[in-house]
Amino acid sequence: MKDKKTEIIEASIELFAKKGFHTTSVQEIVNKANVAKGSFYTYFQSKNELIFSIYTYYSSLTQNKMDQVKERFDDPREAFKKQLEIFFELLKSNKSLIVMLMQGQISIDKDIESLIQQSKQRNFKWAKENLAAIYGEDFQPYLNDAAILLNGIVHGYASWLVGDNADFETDRLAAFTVRRLDDVCFGMQQQNEEPMIQELPDYLQEKALIAQEIEWKLSNEVESNETTEKAIEAIHVLHEEFKKEHPQPVVIQSMLQLVEEVESTRTEVNRLRRLIG
């Protein structure tokens, strides 16, 4: 059963896509969601704050669907192609909403910089994991450059699909994208190119990506409770600690202990422990 917050988000997505942001009232949203008006203000101070949750909801929906399809295939190339199909198909099916968000009909005044950085982290991590699985250990020196190029290709076609009324067949577009990726990746190896990206910014370092993945899992916990809230606060402390020139091991270990109280994070916590020694 969906919780009230999710019901409100899904109802607002449908209404905003049909009627637009400004012409949809809070009353219409709660009527559509079949919840009391007070429930809306329990979760959101305003419609603008609701938009922030729509961004995170849509990102989570997309990521979950791509993760599910990835698990169904043993061949990493085929799994990647199917992930792209899902991504492009979700873009097409939610075009009206995405156009509204992209065209600046509304403003998002809550943690927008954090949201953008988290999106970059997820996209970069997704690209690197798929590239490593497809092209193997010998491709390791080119992973960062290839991840940047891959995200550029995907973003370019996504913008074309949404903003220019293009109507590609998503399976054909996904297969075309994978073939072009082959051209780029095999080309770099065959020509023995020197990688352009020699050093990553702090927020794209492996430990930051793992910490962000933990935060993503915590924010999508079905039931938020005091343990989850403390774990989220601990992750925020870890983010700040990792930025320091000399992080404090005692602080890091204390925060990891709080985080792993939430069972779904323990695999990533163990990865972090192995990484930082």
UniProtKB/TrEMBL annotation:
Domain (HTH tetR-type) ranges: 2-62
Keywords of this entry: DNA-binding, Repressor
InterPro entries the UniProt entry points to: DNA-bd_HTH_TetR-type_CS, HTH-type_Tx_Regulator, HTH_TetR
Species of origin: Allobacillus halotolerans
Designated name of the protein: TetR/AcrR family transcriptional regulator
Known DNA-binding region: 25-44
Endpoints of the signal sequence: none
Organism lineage string: Bacteria, Bacillati, Bacillota, Bacilli, Bacillales
